[in-house]
Amino acid sequence: MTKYEKFLDKAGVISEESFNEIINSLPDFDIDDADFSNLYDFSSKNEILESIFSVILNQWNYVYVDNLDFDSKTVELDDVETIEDLEEIKNALSKWTISNYEDLKESINEENKENDEKSLLISLIMDLDINKLKEIVDKYVQK
């Protein structure tokens, strides 16, 4: 073992074998985009993964890891905007299980239904003549 390897071992940095095990469980990503400066424990696969996941998930708006576990290859995500995004992420993380997949899917579908209903109501309002619209505003909107 070289002095550098001894240094890494004493510093508590995971082994190259363990690091490669992490990398092999993930889709391709640019390691240069990962920020490891805030790591507290360089021996924690989960902590290292959190930094890497932020790079991988960056291509989808606002998606972030809420919880993850390397040993069980499970990740809990939050702020997934669309079913398409969820499916893309699921495919990209094919070696991982999204533990809250069904909950995310249900939540996105509920939000879509609500947005569809809002759009319908807005279109109905847009079709009203100005006098009817004023009447509704006067009756239901507090000034």
Shape: elongated
Rounded to the nearest angstrom, the distance between the terminal CA atoms is 77 Å
Strand order, largest beta sheet: 1-2-3
What is the tally of helical segments? 6
* Portion in beta strands: 5-15%
Write down the domain tally: 2
SS-derived structural category: mainly alpha
Summarize the structure.
Helices cover 54% and strands 9% of the residues.
Structure description:
With 143 residues, this protein is mainly alpha-helical. The chain has two domains: 3-99, no CATH class; 101-143. 54% of the residues lie in helices and 9% in strands. It is built from six helices and three strands, in the order αααββαβαα. It has helices at residues 3-11, 16-24, 45-56, 83-92, 101-126, 130-140; strands at residues 64-69, 74-78, 97-98. The chain has a three-stranded mixed beta sheet, with helices on one face. β2, α4 (83-92) and β3 (97-98) form a beta-alpha-beta unit. The longest helix has 26 residues, at 101-126. It is elongated. The termini are far apart.
